[in-house]
From TrEMBL:
Source species: Andreesenia angusta
Record protein name field: Putative AgrB-like protein
TM annotation in the entry: 39-64, 76-94, 100-124, 136-153
GO BP terms: proteolysis; quorum sensing
UniProt keyword Transmembrane present: yes
One Pfam family of this chain: AgrB
SMART domains membership: AgrB
MF annotations from Gene Ontology: peptidase activity
GO (cellular component) term, any one: membrane
Keywords on record: Cell membrane, Hydrolase, Membrane, Protease, Quorum sensing, Transmembrane, Transmembrane helix
Entry EC number(s): 3.4.-.-
InterPro entries from the UniProt entry: AgrB
Length: 154
C-alpha cells in the first residue's frame, strides 16, 4: 500500500493530476498491482503442483470472458486470491479428470448464455457504472466469446 501511495503521489505531481484523476490513478494501480501479484502467486502455486501450463492455458482462455463479462468481486485481497486459486484449481482438476459429452457441452453452453444474458457485465462497486449501450456491447461480446469456445470444443 505504501508503494502504491508513493507511486500515485509521484505521478500526480509529475503530471499535475487533479484530485479526482489522482484517486482514479491510485485505484488503477491497486487493481493492476493486485492482479499482477495474484497472477504471480498462483503461477508459483500451480507450478509447485505441476500444473503450471494448465493454469496458463485456463488463464488465457478465461481472460477475454472476464474482461467483458465482469466477475465476482471480494472485499479483501486474501478472499479474492483464495477464490481465484480455488476456481482455477477446480477447473484444472475437472479438465484433467473428466471428459464432457456433446450433450453436456450443449447444456453448459445454454447455461452460460443464460447467465451472460441475465447477469453480464458484473461491475465492481468501486468502478464507474457503464451506460446501457456499453453494457449491451459487453454482453454481446461475452456471448460471442462463449460461442467461440463452444464451437472450438467441436
Amino acid at each position: 500500500m505504501v508503494f502504491i501511495n508513493c507511486l500515485a503521489k509521484y505521478f500526480t505531481n509529475k503530471f499535475e493530476l487533479s484530485h479526482i484523476e489522482s484517486i482514479k490513478l491510485k485505484y488503477s494501480l491497486e487493481v493492476l498491482l493486485g492482479d499482477i501479484s495474484k497472477f504471480l502467486i498462483l503461477s508459483l502455486s500451480f507450478a509447485i503442483f505441476g500444473v503450471f501450463l494448465d493454469y496458463i492455458c485456463s488463464f488465457v482462455v478465461l481472460l477475454p470472458m472476464r474482461t467483458f463479462s465482469g466477475g465476482m468481486h471480494f472485499k479483501s485481497y486474501k478472499a479474492c486470491l483464495a477464490f481465484t486459486g480455488t476456481f482455477f484449481g477446480i477447473e484444472i482438476f475437472l479438465k484433467n479428470n473428466f471428459t464432457i459429452s456433446q450433450n453436456l457441452a450443449i447444456v453448459l453452453f445454454i447455461f452460460s448464455i443464460s447467465v451472460i444474458y441475465g447477469l453480464a457485465p458484473v461491475i465492481g462497486e468501486n468502478r464507474p457504472k457503464y451506460s446501457r449501450e456499453k453494457c449491451l456491447q459487453f454482453k454481446i461480446i461475452s456471448i460471442f466469446i462463449a460461442l467461440f469456445h463452444f464451437l472450438a470444443y467441436f
